[in-house]
Each structure stands twice: as C-alpha cells, then as structure tokens.
Task: structure prediction
Amino acid sequence: MTYLLMALGGLAQIWAWRLVAVGYLSIWGATVPALGACGIAALITGEVALSPKVSVPIAIVAGLAAGVVLYAATRGFLVVATASPYLRRASQEIYSEQGSLSTGMALVLSLAIAVPGEELFWRGLFQGQGVADLGNLGGFLLAWLSYIVVNAASGMPALILGGIVGGFVWGARALWTHGVLAALCCHAVWTALMLVRPPVSGARSRGRSALRM
Result:
C-alpha cells in the first residue's frame, strides 16, 4: 500500500509539472496543491519520522546551516553560469513562473505548503520506505533518482539541475538523521533565500511582470 501511494504521488507531481510545462496552469495552481496533497498523504501513513538518529536541536541547526551553504553555492554557480545566455534564460524562466504573485505570498505558499509537502513525501515517506526495504544507499538512490525524474517532467533545465543538486543534499540530510526534519529546514531556508534574494539579476522584476505582458 505504501509503494502504491509513493507511485501515485510521483505520478500526480509529474502530471502537475506537465500542466505547468504546457502553460495550462502556473506552478502555484498545479504543483503547490499536488505537493500539499502528497505531504498530507505521507503524514497519514504514519511512516514519516522527524529525526530519530540525531537530536532535534542539532538536526534543526545543521539543516538551517546547510540551507545557507546551499544557497551560497547556488548563487556562486549562477554568477558564473549565467554568463551563458542559455543558462541565464533557463534561470530566469523559473522566476517568471512567479508571475504577478508577491514575494510575500510566494513565501507563504512555498514554506507553508510546497516545501513541507515535498519533504514529507520525498525524504520522509519515499526515502524512509526505501531505506527500510533496500538499505541506506538503495533507499537514498531510489528517492533521489525518482525525484530527478519527476522534476524532469517540468522541462525546465534550471529546475532539473536544482532537483539533481538539491535532491542530493536534502536526501543526504535525511539519510544522516533517518528523518525529515533536517532536510525540511535546509530546503526551507534555501527556498526562502532564493525568493527573497534571487541570484539571477532582474529575476524578481521579470517574474512580477510576466502575467502583464
């Protein structure tokens, strides 16, 4: 039953990303509800652990610190990478999906629904079940590769790259703690910083003007 839920959750997210890719719905109208539903479903199973291998305070601090480091690394990479017009457009494409939504509302939807839902499902339920059945490495690889496949459905190069790197970092946090807390803290800090201080020049203004063009 758990594996059926994992498969259905992954398919729901692929469908949501395809709706975004073809322009039928925005990220906020497609992926946020899908991630929220997947997170709730993960909680209902009772299979999601918080941080059984590491104390809660250490998991929180380590997760927050990892999020800041990941943001700094992302920013540094994009400073170099966006010298390429292709990579600059790919990075700005993500922010254009914000549309006319304010940064404050984007933060609320991301931190209250999307990020928790994503982590509860992928690093909590998906990776947790994989580790229980396949061992640490097998469970980690199953969750990471599946996460990359789902993100690839978006067709957005920057999002796919973010899924590869971010999925690895968040999965490593979950593998270390055998729970979702550190990964959730890391993901939340990274997302908040990416929204408040976009590493791509002009990204925020482009995003806000996208729906008015």
